[in-house]
Amino acid sequence: MLSAPHIVILAAGRGTRMRSSKPKVLQPLLFRPMLHHVLDVAQALPHRSVSVVVGHGAEDVRESCRGYSVQFFTQERQLGTAHALRCAEPFLARQEGEVLVLSGDTPLLAESTLSGLLRAHAESGARATVATARVAEPAGYGRVIRRDGAVVDIREHADCSAQERLIDEINGGVYCFAIRPLLEALALIGNANRQGEYYLPDALRLIAAGGGTLASFQAADHSEFWGVNDFAALAEAEARLSRRVNKAFMLQGLRLEDPATTRIDPRCRFGRDVTIEAGCVLVASELEDGATVERLSRVVGSSVGPGARIRQGSCVEESSVGAGSWVGPYAHLRPGSVLGREVRVGNFVETKSASLGDGTKAAHLSYIGDAEIGRGVNVGCGFITCNYDGVAKRRTVIEDDVFIGSDSQTVAPVRVAAGSYIASGSTVTEDVPAQSLVISRGRQVTKPGYAKKYGERRGSPSRP
Question: Is-above-0.85 flag for pTM?
Fold first, then answer.
């Protein structure tokens, strides 16, 4: 039985076809750097270590991997995949057993496929095992060369003869090697090919020539080996990965109204009877039992409580929505917003670094920032917390059961004590004691008949 292997991920490439300053493996794929998807599947496998070979943008790649238990090796010059793996040779030379080699730009690899490859390697007793697949149009892929049914070589497409290009079995770019034969082969690999690079697949031919046996594992879905080299391939990879993720969630009980238009981060978690309508985006969030997200909404880094509803076109970022609360339509909860139970945040309301207590309602057209709102508060239309004085952010505290009339403002720092009533059109600049009425608006002056006279002076008759 195969013991847990060491795993090496090759992630040093520049990705010139993307024409981007960002390293290829850090291009975002389903809300995360492409490399993270490979790291996730690697760390889900039994393993003794995980290493990443970095090159272009090495510091950025290292920084992105914080939180993963990995070690790094640097490929100063990108001279091919065999040269990249040799950068980890000082570590591998001190190890025994097997090494599984992956690529940082193949983000669709499934754990089940890699587990199958490792089993096939162990059962065959081979010195090296390669993942393969059958494809109808193999152009661009390396071909698997067999003799009497046994794998003897991998030929890059550019180096294939016309006859070899007819072969439909391709190299998946995933290998499991016994470490000792691998190191011996790496020392012999040359770069006498059309690209002038040191190809890792050449190690298979050298191992076979030295008397070592080779094995293969044929994957059911060749798209797992999809190498991302440009933004067209990146978009296709995201579509494929999204379909896979959405299907897995639906099989676990999530109701997706239109999976084709819905993007869900695989880090999300869902309770029972959760419904996601068409055109939604959910990233690193948790939705509890009975929650609903209506069409064209976005939930990022947030928790949505039981029975809560994110209504159409709303955005919830790094916030918490309590049980039975409603958000929207077209509301925006910015980072640090915390809604209690049965809270209503309605049309075109924006909150930021604000807590709203149980039963509080802000139905429409308000901004609540850097504020602590108590329970049972009624926030009228057009209310604003004036939280920034041009130098620093200040906090507003509104205690339980306060009624805030429409078109009012609080100028922070200020506290409105429980049970108070803020009259419509008021600007609150001083602390308000409990059970108080606040009126701070200009006195109304009415002049009967003035509108008619004014209209005549302007040369247009007043309306009756």
Answer: yes
